[in-house]
Amino acid sequence: MHLLEVENLTKRFGGLTAVNEVSFHVDEGELVGIMGPNGAGKTTLFNLISGFLRPTSGTVKFKGENITGLAPHKIVNKGIARTFQIVRPFRHLPVIANVMVSLKSPRGARKIEWLKTDERKALDLLEDVGLSELMLEPAENVGHGDLKRLEMARALATEPDLLMLDEPFGGLNPLETDFLTKSILRMHLDESSRGIVIVEHKLYALMKIVERVIVLHQGEKIAEGKPEEIAKNKKVIEVYMGKEM
Amino acid sequence: MVATYVKRAYSSFAAHVFDVPPRLLALLLFILLLFCPLVKPGQSIQLILRDTFFFAMLAVSWDLLVGRTGQISLGHALFFGIGAYGTALLYQYLALPPWITIPIAILIGISVAPLIGLPCLRVKGPYLALVTMALPLILSAVIKYGPITHITGGEMGIGPLPPLIPTELFQRIGFSYRESLPLVELANYYLALVLLFVFSVVLYKIANSKTGMIFVSILDDELASKACGINVTRYKLMAFTISGLFATMTGAFYAHLVTIVNPWFLSLMHISFPTIIRTFLGGIGTIYGPLVGTHIYFILDRYVLEKMVQLPFLTYTQWTYTRLLIFAAIVIVLIIKWPRGIARFVTDKLQDLEEARDLDERGKWIWKTYKKKKME
Fold first, then answer.
1. pLDDT along chain A (245 residues), means of 10
2. Closest CA to A161 of A66, A44, A76
3. Closest chain B residue to A97 measured between Cα atoms?
4. Domains of chain B: which residue ranges?
5. Residues A43, A210: contact at Cβ < 8 Å?
6. Is residue B269 a contact partner of residue B321, using CB atoms and an 8 Å limit?
């Protein structure tokens, strides 16, 4: 049984087909990348899986359970957490409270570690992503790179079985990209059963860390395979570089 | 033994109240109000302040819903009216004393709030504001509806209701009827003050609890709170119900103080909109802001604008609405100048001073150590 199974997922906005009959799966402990040029339907696919949009047709199965069309907060509590492409912090709240909101959700509040208070847990999560020094700063004063990491800490606070990162490297400088890459990899090694899906533009950063890549183009899946194979795939090169004259 | 406990209590009090500017400000305000009737036992200021306390409660409860959760409601008069009419109708038809009718009216408020909230909170932003604005209008139209005015009292209202603190209470101790009247007013004043204190502390606690944190997260970004696994609808309903509950309580108590209930309790012009103006005056989203804002509003209203009634070119009714216009203009200027309100402005300044002092001390310390090193 796969962790996440997407079958023939389709989303139409009026005449435009944003996602067309896409099927793929993610196994436990797998790091999967989804790539594609602008407007390929990557974010729409994310929104469909996490419940922010209702698919026109097709099903999403998580741990064998059909979760198509469930409310977003219910899906999060089933174990799928996501981050946003454009950071969405709670601007009035301090950084640590941003994480504690997640800890107040039913899944985040599960008492696995009895001796830990919410504050302690939140601080640990912030330490993992390297934000503990900014914990009392209101989120509106925090820079973009740190907010990206805050998004990740917030998603991790619900202890997801599947983590979906929507362009985690967007707008980051090489140094920050490197740091984030490392923390994603470390997280991947620590939690051996957690699946991770990354949508990304920056192929260089993406190809280094993922085990399998799915390529979308105009809403359709055009290729799937190991990074080395994808890099040689003719169709993919065509999509990214254009046809040979 | 006792001394250590007192010391510990004092230090905890100092840490929790003295070091937090808004709390210190609120405490000073309450102390001032506590001694107000003793300094000047005049009737009119006491009555005005008593009314102020009740409208401050209403503004604080509105602030929890709108300032913290971001669900704009223009129909807060609805709950105020439900509380007042609930207790009045119960008195009229069952002849129950106020100490029973008020809790029942509050229960009605609690059960009505989610029923109204569930359909209303499906819409957002300006639409929610419009829907909620319609609600008290509908209720007052029902109350004024011809065929049932003998039940609801119509325009004339229901009254007189029994006062919360009857004069007999004092007459029984030995005061004459004439002597007990000012005592009743004094008792009412302190009752209102205690209620205001309890209301604002409870609402402040709720607003700064972890539930309040989730309210603010909904205000900031609803989608992101959903992505955090928060059942947004549930928390919105919770805020709506808490806010409605406190507004209902205010209405029920106020009805027994003025001893008459009429459609005025549901009017947008006299209840809903002034509440909003008062909250903005003090600073929205702060809980202590509306407290201060309401007092400023009443001082301006009763001691400055009231005097202008003598102007020849306006009738009294025209003047009541012009007053609201003037306040609206003041608020617009304020929002441009100090968007966080007057109370927020003061506390921000206090915080800045504190930080400046800290920096100053640190600077002095650095200078000292620098000089020491130079000497060596």
1. 90 89 91 87 91 92 91 92 91 91 87 75 87 88 89 90 89 86 85 87 81 89 88 83 72
2. A76
3. B213
4. 42-265
5. no
6. yes
Residues B57-80 as b or e (16 or more Cβ within 10 Å = b): bbbbbbbbbbbbbbbbbbbbbbbb
Instruction: Tell me which chain B residues have a C-beta less than 8 angstroms from the C-beta of A157.
Output: 228
Q: Where are the alpha helices (DSSP H) in chain A?
A: 42-49, 72-78, 95-103, 118-129, 144-156, 174-190, 203-209, 227-232, 234-241
At residue B204, what are phi and psi to the nearest 5 degrees?
A: -65, -40
pLDDT in tens, B255-308: 999 989 999 999 888 899 999 999 998 888 888 889 889 999 988 888 877 777
Angstrom distance (rounded) from CA A162 to CA A107: 13
Token pair for B86 = 């609930």
Q: What type of residue is A236?
A: V
- The CA radius of gyration of chain B, in Å to the nearest whole number, is 24
Q: What phi and psi, each to the nearest 5 degrees, are found at residue B357?
A: -65, -45
pLDDT tens, B210-263? 999 999 999 999 999 999 999 999 999 999 999 999 999 999 999 999 989 999
The chain B residues in contact with chain A (CB within 8 A) are 210, 213-214, 216-217, 219-221, 223-232, 285
Phi and psi angles of residue B158, each rounded to the nearest 5 degrees, phi first: -115, 135
ipTM metric: 0.89
Q: Do B227 and A72 touch (CB under 8 A)?
A: yes
Contact A126, A135 (CB under 8 A): yes
Instruction: Say how far residue A117 (Cα) sits from the centre of its chain.
Output: 27
Chain A, residues 91-130, CB within 8 A of chain B, namely 91-93, 97-98, 100-102, 104-108, 118
| Omega before residue B182 within 30° of 0, cis | no
Distance, CA of B313 to CA of B319 (rounded, Å): 9
Q: Which two tokens stand for residue B54?
A: 């009740």
Q: Which residue of B has its CA nearest to A101?
A: B214
Place of tokens 């040689």: A232
**How far is the alpha carbon of A232 from chain B, nearest alpha carbon, in Å?**
36
One DSSP character per residue, B90-126 reads HHHHH---HHHHHHHHHHHHHHHHHHHHHHHTTS-HH
Closest-approach residue (CA) in chain B for A87: B224
